[in-house]
Amino acid sequence: MPMTRAQVLDLYYMDARCKLIEIAAFLDRVDRGTGEADFRLDAFRDAMQHLAGGEPRRAEEVLRSLSDPTEVPVDKAPGKGAVGAWPGRGA
Amino acid sequence: MRYIEPHGHMVSRTTDDYLDMVTAGCAAVCEPAFWAGFDRGSVDGFRDYFRQLTEYEPARAAKYGLPHYCWLCINPKESEDVALASDVLGIIPEFLGRPGVLGIGEIGLNKNSRNELRVLEMHVDLAARHDQLILVHTPHLEDKLKGTRLILDVLKNDRRIRPERVLIDHVEEHTVRIVLDHGHWAGMTLYPISKCTPARAVDILDVHGSDRLWMNSACDWGESVPLAIPRTALEMRRRGWSAEAIDRVVFQNPVRFLCQCPRFRLPA
After folding, report:
1. Which of A44, B27, B104, B207 is least surrounded, with the fewest CB atoms within 10 Å of its CB?
2. What string of H, E and C letters represents the secondary structure of chain B?
3. B80 touches chain A (CB under 8 A)
4. Low-confidence residues of chain A, pLDDT below 50?
């Protein structure tokens, strides 16, 4: 049985409120920083647009937005790590 | 409560974690081969690691009454060196008949390179030739969606592979559906930052059902929580899941998949 909306709010509202303020504070912190930002900030702002969507697929859409959309293997691994956003989107 | 930890890198955990897991109801732990945090330089380094996984670590777990199983492979993070990978694959059959060896894993992709893909195909071939279960690692973060698609293509193109004998791990909201639609099992990894939180994992169960899904902590030397499964079971209980439904996800589902390996014994 799915939870009622009120039950969801009772369980998760304070946690989501906290994370929302953390995001706001993160963006403020970036603004106060010096120097140039990189592709990750643009990717983050693009991904945030999906929060305003009207369908309950926002998490999936945010993840897709931050993903490499290409289909062909790269010639050589450029290292081992991932950074959470695809650098080619703004290129 | 009883549960199975189907993915824990216990060689990088302390014995305190074994104690906590058993106290919380862990009935068996399964340890895939993974990256050590640095690239190993020789095939003998992997032979030692496979001995650790099949000899030393089961003995350490047994001190806490916990059955320990493992998967063997060279991790995708070390797959750029195809020659070394080929040599490592050559010694894996020496270990496949050992008690506690579940199959080939965690294989897959990391940065979706051509060499990684080649080594993945070699692992799939090894598994097919030796009739082994397969555990697949999907890439991190921005590489996951593309890598998952490439992995599914490799598995689909090898007609010897039965989808129900493959578990594709680290799924999230954007990859779980395509994995299940290909007939595979899917694993959700419960990480504090980079994969699924307990709340999101339960969301995925709510949306996609619990038929071929399991959860794991994938605890290793990075930010991870060895008790992530019991904590997620608590999340399920808070959201109204029955004890039976929780047991199905955290115990019965892993048993259903792992029992396809004759070396896996149902925990007492």
Report:
1. B207
2. CCEEECCECHHHCCHHHHHHHHHCCEEEEEEECCCCCCCCCCHHHHHHHHHHHHHHHHHHHHCCCCCEEEEECCCHHHCCCHHHHHHHHHHCHHHHCCCCEEEEEEEECCCCEHHHHHHHHHHHHHHHHCCCEEEEECCCHHHHHHHHHHHHHHHHHCCCCCHHHEEECCCCCCCHHHHHHCCCEEEEEECCCCCECHHHHHHHHHHHCCCCEEEECCECCCCCCCCHHHHHHHHHHHCCCCHHHHHHHHHHHHHHHHCCCCCCCCCC
3. yes
4. none
